[in-house]
Design goal:
With 128 residues, the protein is an alpha/beta fold. Helix content is 37%, strand content 13%. It has a single domain, classed as Nucleotidyltransferase, domain 5, CATH 3.30.420.10. The chain has four helices and three strands; from the N terminus they run βαβααβα. Helix 1 (35-52) packs parallel to helix 3 (84-94). 22% of the residues are buried. One of its GO terms (molecular function) is RNA-DNA hybrid ribonuclease activity.
């Protein structure tokens, strides 16, 4: 598979998708202590889906509205934060992909993510 896959948690009004859409998921997670924790877990989930679905030969673009998550994924040193082990695991998964790019998107542009999160409030299972 050639081209790029764009993982976009937050859809921007002024950007166009550059690649193919793989999946969306919505559901409740236990023991999530903060929005940042949820975003770290969501990033790990997407990395796991990409690796398990053999999309490793495509370029992947991760867009996040959390600069803390992006910093954790981009830095070479081990993350010493509370979520460091999850970030380390995510980085390990992403190493099997040929090319990963991380971009920041404004929180104001996350209407798609907001709708998806709202749809998960009533459910108890994941929908992929």
């Amino acid at each position: 598979m050639g081209g790029k896959i764009k993982e976009q948690q937050n859809e921007s009004y002024h950007s166009r998708p550059l690649g193919k859409f793989i999946a969306q998921a919505s559901g409740r997670h236990r023991d999530v202590i903060s929005p940042l924790h949820a975003e770290v877990l969501a990033t790990r989930f997407v990395a796991l889906v990409l690796v398990q679905s053999n999309h490793g030969s495509a370029g992947v673009i991760f867009e996040r509205d959390s600069s803390l998550v992006l910093t954790g994924l981009k830095q070479k040193d081990e993350d010493q934060s509370t979520f460091g082990p999850i970030i380390k695991d995510t980085k390990g998964l992403l190493q099997s992909l040929e090319h990963c790019e991380f971009r920041h998107t404004n929180r104001d542009a996350n209407h798609a993510a907001y709708r998806l999160a709202r749809s998960g409030f009533g459910g108890t299972s994941d929908a992929v």
